[in-house]
């Protein structure tokens, strides 16, 4: 009889404790790493105008993608979602607009910027008392003359950024934004050289 009481007592306790181990679905974390301001910007001639053309990656331009996962509980993770192509396009348009170098149409541009997204991801590493969020971006950037295929430049640029904290979930946008700023500035600086 004593064995039976122990089983009856411990069975509900085991069920309660094991139910916490089941990975439950959590709401996605949506980020927008688009840049509204840049710390520095390469000098560009006032006569040069840029049109931001196609930005393509693994998805249709403007659609969202899961770029990583973040731990939200002991056994739960949430997907981190953003639109890489929209973030890149909006950031480039803002960058050129602030310098007065944005062309409203392809026909009025000196150069058209086209980007292929090769990698755009966040990776979170958990340790005993901290987490590290690493962002990695790799882009194939082309600067094309809209009237001549001979006058074009191409560059593959890559950037990384990371942050460590007790909980990095709230830093996902900041980490990705830092990597995006670095990769775009490097691309424009190198492509705009004569």
Instruction: Work out the number of β strands.
Output: 7
Question: Which superfamily, in CATH terms, is the homologous superfamily?
Answer: ABC-type transport auxiliary lipoprotein component
Query: Strand content of the residues, in percent?
Result: 35-45%
The total tally of domains equals: 1
Largest sheet: 4 strands, mixed
Shape descriptor reads elongated
CATH architectural name: 3-Layer(aba) Sandwich
CATH class descriptor = Alpha Beta
What keyword list fits this structure?
single chain, 194 residues, alpha/beta, four-stranded mixed β-sheet
Please provide a written account of the structure.
This protein has 194 residues and is of the alpha/beta class. 27% of the residues lie in helices and 37% in strands. The chain has one domain: ABC-type transport auxiliary lipoprotein component (Rossmann fold, 3-Layer(aba) Sandwich). It has a four-stranded mixed β-sheet. Strands 1-4-3 form a three-stranded mixed β-sheet, with no helix packed on it. A hairpin with a 5-residue loop joins strand 3 and strand 4.
């Amino acid at each position: 009889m004593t064995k039976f009481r122990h089983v009856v007592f411990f069975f509900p306790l085991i069920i309660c404790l094991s139910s916490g181990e089941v990975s439950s679905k959590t709401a996605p974390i949506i980020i927008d790493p688009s840049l509204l301001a840049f710390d520095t910007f390469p000098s560009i001639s006032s006569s040069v105008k840029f049109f931001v053309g196609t930005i393509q990656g693994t998805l249709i331009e403007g659609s969202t993608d899961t770029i990583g996962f973040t731990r939200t509980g002991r056994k739960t993770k949430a997907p981190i979602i953003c639109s890489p192509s929209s973030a890149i396009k909006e950031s480039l348009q803002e960058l050129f607009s602030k310098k007065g170098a944005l062309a409203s149409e392809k026909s009025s541009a000196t150069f058209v910027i086209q980007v292929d997204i090769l990698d755009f991801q966040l990776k979170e590493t958990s340790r005993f008392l901290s987490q590290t969020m690493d962002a990695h971006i790799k882009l194939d950037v082309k600067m094309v003359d809209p009237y001549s295929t001979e006058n074009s430049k191409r560059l593959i640029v890559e950037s990384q950024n990371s942050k460590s904290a007790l909980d990095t979930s709230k830093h996902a946008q900041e980490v990705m934004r830092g990597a995006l700023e670095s990769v775009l500035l490097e691309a424009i600086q190198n492509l705009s050289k004569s």
